[in-house]
Design the sequence.
């Protein structure tokens, strides 16, 4: 259900507003100042909510590894089976003859998603990785 739009005025320094307008312009014609402010407010609220370790979040972990590394593929596989209830999907891409990219999509309490991510990123042979957390505000 959509809630009613309320207008309010915001005061800000001219140079900050000028930078903000450049951001609005970069987001394209479909977005105006109000829409970008709403996006930023939603981002800030989400950031604040996911600080709670018990908030249900979606996590997307992207990792890069060399599949020749010692038993790495088995270790990564074992971790993912251990948390099968939290791991929704995994996509594997062979980047070149040696290097793999994997995107692991997870759902669960923030602390569990962070733990799985830390275990995978801490596995020897994973050369790079990044976890992105988001939430739908639905628990
Ligand atoms: Ni591969």
Sequence:
């Amino acid at each position: 259900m959509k809630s009613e739009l309320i207008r309010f005025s915001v005061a800000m320094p001219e140079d900050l507003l000028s930078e903000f307008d450049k951001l609005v312009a970069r987001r394209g014609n479909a977005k105006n100042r109000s829409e970008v402010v709403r996006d930023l407010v939603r981002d800030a609220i989400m950031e604040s909510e996911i600080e709670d370790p018990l908030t249900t979040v979606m996590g997307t972990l992207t990792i890069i590894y060399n599949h020749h590394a010692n038993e790495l593929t088995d270790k990564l596989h074992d971790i993912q089976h251990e948390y099968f209830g939290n791991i929704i999907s995994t996509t594997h891409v062979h980047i070149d003859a040696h290097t793999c990219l994997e995107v692991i999509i997870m759902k669960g309490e923030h602390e569990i998603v962070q733990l799985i991510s830390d275990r995978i990123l801490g596995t020897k042979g994973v050369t790079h990785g990044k976890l992105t957390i988001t939430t739908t505000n639905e628990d």
